[in-house]
Amino acid sequence: MRRWTPLVSITVLSISLPVTAGAFDHGPFDRIVREHVKKGRVDYRAIKAGAMGELDRYVDALGKGRVEGMSREQQLAFYLNAYNANVIKAVVDRYPVASVMKVKGFFDRMKIRVAGRALTLNELENKVIRKRFAEPRIHFALVCAARSCPPLPSRAFSGKRLDRDLERLTRAFINSPAGARIERGRATVSKLFEWYAEDFKKAAGSVGAFVARYRERGAERFRKGPVGFHPYSWVLNDR
């Protein structure tokens, strides 16, 4: 639902968003989402009008960055931010657009540059993030610009608080109507759990068991199953 050349001088570091081993400045992206993301909805129009320069520079720095020397948490935060920032940029570059599904090849043909590699969004998600980190909670942090996606956080990810943020986002989504529901005795979950069922089964044995770990009401209903999947809206998550 993601990162990162040796330090040449302190002046270069401060101008080009640091890419020294073990460090990366996500401050620009943090400022953008704090100002333009409210309750998971993104003000793409405002970003296009006033923050494109900062977003372009941040995305360019992600492309030149290096992850060598970073902790596991810093690397994962880098890649999560890279995915989300590149999705926002791709939408803003084409705005107004009703849905990313109206953009041919949005996920599987459009190339972005992350940590020196040219990748599609699908490759970044599946060949880098999922393969390298084996962390099912990333599906509640990667945001694909759709209404049924987990809400985009109003701050950038950082290695220091990553585990806490992933736990919070997972719990919030699973306890929201978009994540999991019980209606007329029938338990259903987001199609994210169908598309990435393998990840949740590896973590908990089954999709239902994973949902039950976080569900505040009706956990046993999900644990016992059966569990269905409710419709997914690809309408743009704009404001």
Features:
disordered N terminus; mainly alpha; globular; 46% helix; 239 residues; two-stranded antiparallel ribbon; 3-stranded mixed beta sheet; 7 strands
Question: Describe it for me?
Answer:
The protein has one domain (10-229). Strand 5 and strand 6 form a beta hairpin. Helices cover 46% and strands 9% of the residues. The chain starts with 9 loop residues before the first helix and ends in a 10-residue tail after the last strand. The chain is mainly alpha-helical. It has helices at residues 10-15, 27-36, 44-50, 52-64, 72-94, 121-133, 162-174, 192-195, 197-204, 207-214, 219-224, and strands at 37-38, 41-42, 112-114, 117-119, 180-183, 186-189, 227-229. It has 11 helices and 7 strands. Helix 3 crosses helix 5, helix 4 crosses helix 5 and helix 5 (72-94) runs antiparallel to helix 6. A 3-stranded mixed beta sheet has the order 5-6-7. Strands 1-2 form a two-stranded antiparallel sheet.
